[in-house]
Every structure is written in structure tokens, then in C-alpha cells.
Amino acid sequence: MTIESEVLKGRQFLWQVEETAGFESSWIDLDGLRLHAEGRSAGQLPEPYWVTYTLDTDENAVTTRLQVTCVTATERRSLDLRREGDTWSVDGTPRPDLADARDCDLACSPLTNTMPIIRTGLHRHPGTAEFVMAFVEVPGLRVVPSKQTYTHLGPADGGAEVRYAAGSFTSDLHIDAEGFVVVYPTLGHRVPATTSVTDGERLRGPGSARPGA
Asked: What pLDDT band is residue 211 in, cutting at 50, 70 and 90?
């Protein structure tokens, strides 16, 4: 299967994450299938937390490194998840149980659904693909293998509808033409960069110094 090349530089996506009563924002560079992302998220469930992460993949959208810091009211945790060849390590310790995984999956992050979808072209073409993920729990940052399936259901609003399944859980995701989540039912949705506030109102509003007020 030939995957059409995409080049995105310095794009920002913002998602409202209903599952955690929070938000996620990520700066994204995508060159072909090579992805670099730097993100921040804040949630209130299952407990209040902040997360920062940096994600890198190779030219086939296969995870090479995920660095995560998570801060709660009582502690700060960090994670350095790496993949070199077929070998994964967590904070420098080999994890042979993750050998079948090619992707990381950061809990409650709409971003990390992107890699398996764009690598298999399921945002553009019919098909089903099964994966093992290196799943990162939040806020604890424990890493466990997770079997997941993605199925292209058909075109939708300029992108596609892709069914995600893990165990008994399924959700039909709205994916944009570039392979990023727009709506993930029960988890969250992307916030469009639109507003009803006019430029004049913005200049005079609470986000400004209100000169001449």
C-alpha cells in the first residue's frame, strides 16, 4: 500500500477531553510519516494532574521515543519510553513483553491514535488492522501491552470514520484527512479555532490592556 506524503509544520491541535474533564494541546510536525509532537494536558479525573510529553517516530510512523512527565497534588513522575529495532525499554530497563508493539498509546490522548492509522492508511482506504500498543497509564505512567484493532468504516466530513476496538470497548472515531482525531466519542473532541468575538471586541476585551478604556 502506498501512503501519500503529508508535510505539516508547526500545527497546533487542541482537544477537550471529556473522559478526564480536561484538555490536551499539541504542537505537531509531520513529514511524510515521521511525526514529532510536543504536548501538554491537564485533567481532573481520576485525580487532578498535569502531563507534558514529547513524542517521536521514525519515517514509518513507528514510535522511537516518548518522554512523559506527570504532576499530581502529591508527586511528580517521569517516563522515558524508547524503541530501538524490536527492543523497547522503560527508563533504561528492557521490556521484552512489548516486543510486538510498534506504537505507544498515551492514555486519554487523542494524538496517539494517529500513528497506527496513518501508517496503514485507514483514514483513506478500507481495511482492518490489528496492533499491540505500549499503553501508558495516566497518571501512574505504568506501561503495559494492549491489543487494539482499527477498522475503516467509510468517508465522513472530508475524512473518515474509523472504528477503534480494545477488549470489549469500541468507539467510532471521526478522523480528518491527515489522520488526526476530530471526535472520539466518550473520550473527547477537537476544539475548532473559531470564536464569535470580533477583532474589535478582542482588542477591548479582558485579554488586552484595553488602551483608552
From this structure: low
